[in-house]
Amino acid sequence: MSWRTTAFRAVRPLLFLTDPERIHHATLAALGWSGRHAVGRALCGFAAGARGGQPLELMGLRFRNRVGLGAGFDKDGLAIEGWAALGFGFVELGTVTPRPQAGNARPRLFRLPRDHALVNRMGFNNAGAEALARRISDARPRLPDGFVIGVNIGRNRDGEIDDYSAAARAVAKVADYLAINVSSPNTPGLRDLEDPERLRELLDMVRSAAPSVPLLVKLSPDLTHNRRAEIVRALPETTRGVILSNTTTIRVGLGSAAGAEGGGLSGTPLRPLMLGAVEESRRVGGRDIAIIASGGIGSGADVVAGINAGADLVQLWTGMIYAGPGLIGDAIRAC
Fold first, then answer.
1. 334: Cα separation from own chain's centroid
2. What is the predicted pLDDT for the residue at 238?
3. Are 87 and 51 in contact (CB under 8 A)?
4. pTM, whole model, 2 decimals?
């Protein structure tokens, strides 16, 4: 653990006095400003302690390092340059839908401090795919080489399966890869699309809308072993791999009262499910598929565990809420 993480943990109780969604938006605003100014970029680099990292070629893309930001933190691309300044090798924006939507009613984001976890039921709140495409296009000229931008796409709450094609079409010219979200527990009926036949139909539709963009599928950690293996085996050749995993609806052994809230659970309790899913998918899919480990990564040791289980890349999200930006540097050094 770096001194940056130790220092952050000392001030974390003060930060946790603020409503989690309010401080989330404040963080995005601060990073958005920082990424556009030299002083801010320098402060980001100091806070994260990220230096270099080992580049990786994957899916026809060059990642400057293996550590990325998971989807859900910056749905609308408000801080793209800030994430680059923190040292990430890639960022996954979204989940974004074709049409803007407000998401679920507040409160919808809850901390579980005893468990180093979060519960969210945000409901794909976002400004729409076209707005995100404009922000990515605007930020591109100022980004460093090897900084990859993925876009996670979904359907509107009142939408249909062809929402995925519409969202893909809107961002196809600016996204380095697309992540197909069929696993959020906060949009009714979404996980039904994990059925292998329906998923293949969906992926073929998205491929037609975005023929030259690498596709990944983000799966649920709550799938049975047999169903996950079935999905991985049935992935069409045009799909490059999987992201493992989304949030879980399973609640076992939590010490925080907020664990009873409805929504998806992320953070430390998700780690065993993520590692098991990564190991199994690598065994089933072999070396031909790309695997991104996402969920429960809160230290450099967790990064090593994810890569040893078979992941090519890792994503951070909830871990930063508890370890601070120093986790980015710790994660990159662990690779």
1. 19
2. 87
3. yes
4. 0.97
Query: Which residue in this structure is represented by tokens 């990430």?
Result: 88
Helix axes 326-334, 38-48, angle to 10 degrees: 60
Q: How far apart, in whole angstroms, are the C-alpha atoms of residue 110 and residue 60?
A: 38
Active centre residues (catalytic):
184
Strands (E), the chain: 56-58, 61-63, 67-69, 90-96, 109-112, 117-120, 148-153, 177-181, 215-219, 239-244, 264-267, 290-294, 313-316
* pLDDT reported for residue 58: 98
Residue whose pair of structure tokens reads 């596709």 in the numeric block: 215
Domains by residue range for the chain, with CATH: 3-334 (3.20.20.70)
* CA distances, 23 to each of 28, 124, 267, 285, 316 (Å): 9, 18, 18, 40, 18
Q: What is the pLDDT of residues 195-236, one digit of tens each?
A: 999 999 999 999 999 999 999 999 999 999 999 999 999 999
Instruction: Give pLDDT tens digits for 297-329.
Output: 999 999 999 999 999 999 999 999 999 999 999
